[in-house]
Design a protein that fits this description.
By secondary structure, this protein is mainly alpha-helical. Helices cover 68% and strands 5% of the residues. A two-stranded parallel ribbon has the order 1-2.
C-alpha cells in the first residue's frame, strides 16, 4: 500500500514540476527552437522529488495517515473475508452432516451470498474512499509546492525548475540542485497537520 502511495505521489510531483516553472516564460515555437537559440542568461534548477517525498513534513505526515488508513481498510476486509470463509466452511460441513432441511440450506446459502455481495460492495466503497483521499493529498501537495515555488522564484528568477525522479533527467550538475533549499523553505512554511486529520 505504501509503495502505491509513493508512486502516485511521485507521478503527481513530476507533473507538478513540469507545470510549475515561471509562467511568464515565453512559449517555445517548436519550429524555430534550437540549442543555439536558447537564451544564455536562462536560469535552470532542479529538485529531487524523492527527497521531497521523504523530507517534506507535510508529505511524511500525510503518507503516514494514508498508510494507516490503507492498513485499517486491509484489516477490515481481511477480518470480514475470514469470517465469511469460516461461515461457508461451516455451512459445507453442516450440509455434509445433514444438519439442514432443503429450505434451511437454501436460506443459509442465500444469506452467505448476500454477505459476499456486501463484502464486495464494502471493498469497492473503501477503495474508492481511499483513492479519493489519495487524490486530495496529491492535490494539496501539488498546491503547497506550487505556492511555495511562486514565492521562492520571485527572488531567484529561475526560467525553469525541473523535477528529477529516477532517470527522467539523464545528467544534472549538482550546482543546479535546489532541493535542500526547497525542502527547508517548505518545512519552514508548513504549519502542521490539523489534529483531526491525524486521528
Amino acid at each position: 500500500m505504501k509503495k502505491s502511495i509513493c508512486s502516485v505521489a511521485v507521478v503527481a510531483m513530476m507533473s507538478l514540476f513540469a507545470a510549475s516553472c515561471n509562467n511568464s516564460a515565453p512559449k517555445v515555437d517548436e519550429k524555430s527552437a534550437s540549442v543555439s537559440s536558447v537564451d544564455a542568461n536562462m536560469k535552470i534548477a532542479y529538485v529531487e522529488v524523492d527527497s521531497i517525498m521523504t523530507q517534506y513534513k507535510f508529505c511524511k505526515e500525510y503518507s503516514a495517515i494514508l498508510e494507516k488508513k490503507g492498513q485499517n481498510i486491509q484489516n477490515t476486509l481481511n477480518s470480514k473475508g475470514t469470517a465469511l470463509q469460516n461461515a461457508v466452511n461451516k455451512f459445507q460441513q453442516d450440509i455434509q452432516n445433514n444438519q439442514y432441511t432443503q429450505q434451511q440450506a437454501e436460506s443459509v446459502q442465500a444469506s452467505l451470498q448476500k454477505q459476499q455481495s456486501d463484502l464486495q460492495a464494502l471493498q469497492q466503497r473503501l477503495s474508492s474512499e481511499f483513492q479519493s483521499e489519495t487524490e486530495k493529498f496529491n492535490n494539496a501537495l501539488r498546491d503547497s509546492i506550487q505556492h511555495y515555488l511562486t514565492i521562492y522564484n520571485k527572488d531567484k528568477k529561475f526560467s525553469l525548475i525541473l523535477s528529477k525522479a529516477g532517470d527522467n533527467i539523464l545528467y544534472a550538475d549538482k550546482t543546479y540542485d535546489i532541493t535542500n533549499e526547497i525542502i527547508t523553505g517548505l518545512n519552514k512554511a508548513y504549519k502542521g497537520m490539523p489534529a483531526e486529520k491525524k486521528k
